[in-house]
Amino acid sequence: MQGHSIFQRDIKSHWNVHYNQNGYPHVQQGWILHPERQKEFDPFILMAEDWFKRGTFSDHPHRGFQTVTYVVDGRLEHIDNHGGHSILEAGDVQYMNAGWAARHAEEAVDDDLIHTLQLWLNLPKSLKNTKTSYQNIFVEDAPEVRFDGGRIKVYSGDVAGVKGPMESLVPLTMSEISFSAGATYRHVIPENHNAFLYVLSGELEFGASKTILEKTGAATLTFNQSGSGNSELVIKAHTRSKVLIYSGVPIEEEVVTYGPFVMNTMEEIKQAFRDYRAGKFGPPAV
């Protein structure tokens, strides 16, 4: 009976990422979620794919949102001005709640060319002044569920009967699904979550529309914002493939994004700059 009542997801909109060749040290960059479309992506603000050398993202501030950084390749060094330091490698994820006042650096290690995907996840107005925090989710600590012809690795949320270790302040699912050629999987997430996906490799077919997406393909999914049950997206792999799927509950508040800050009004943005210049974000991250 459940198979007849569960909300069936499909592809809503899809596109391929286009890249800018920036030169040294920010070698290449592309928008998976373009910030100009942020109302469509709520609660997500943007998602960037970057290849960079050391010196690209040195000491800088943030306020009013969260980041979820997935390391595709290379070694990513995290340094913050509260004494935090860590190195993440391929498959690792870092969650940051910028909250009130984050100041950190995200650098390639030594001479590495680091390849990352960074998602900006909004905070509701009630949580924008929360304490800054960081959490590393190493690839070996994310639970993995096998299915016929593949596996799903869960970084955040309750998915496939397991719970991801990420401690997001807002509801969030993040899963990495790997397929062998010909495998099919039904991905189940709450029907009221706005969701998107990004194909890391291979060629996959999604939903009743059987939309085919290849590497660098991104898409938003249909959803039922008033629903309270689960939904499923049917995925079939044409080749060996890997896809990331994210979902979250829309916040539905005014959003103003400017530089490293995400607030509800322009006056709050100006106050963030004043606070930063006044030293309220603390010393540099070194």
Core attributes:
286 residues; mainly beta; Jelly Rolls; seven-stranded antiparallel beta sheet; 3 helices; 27 strands; 7% helix; 52% strand; globular
Would you mind describing this structure in some detail?
- With about 290 residues, the chain is mainly beta.
- It has one domain: Jelly Rolls (Sandwich), CATH 2.60.120.
- The chain is built from three helices and 27 strands.
- A seven-stranded antiparallel β-sheet has the order 2-23-20-25-18-15-14, with no helix packed on it. It has a seven-stranded antiparallel β-sheet with strand order 3-4-5-12-7-10-13.
- Strand 8 (about 75-80) and strand 9 (about 85-90) form a beta hairpin.
- The longest helix has 12 residues, at about 265-275.
- It is globular.
Describe the secondary structure blueprint for this structure.
Layout: H1 2-5, E1 7-8, E2 11-16, E3 19-21, E4 28-33, H2 38-41, E5 44-52, E6 57-62, E7 65-73, E8 76-80, E9 85-88, E10 93-97, E11 102-108, E12 114-122, E13 133-137, E14 144-147, E15 150-156, E16 158-159, E17 162-163, E18 172-179, E19 184-190, E20 194-201, E21 203-206, E22 211-214, E23 217-221, E24 230-237, E25 241-248, E26 256-258, E27 261-263, H3 266-277
Parallel strand pairs: 1-24
Antiparallel strand pairs: 2-23, 3-4, 4-5, 5-12, 6-11, 7-10, 7-12, 8-9, 8-11, 10-13, 14-15, 15-18, 16-17, 18-25, 19-24, 20-23, 20-25, 21-22, 21-24, 26-27
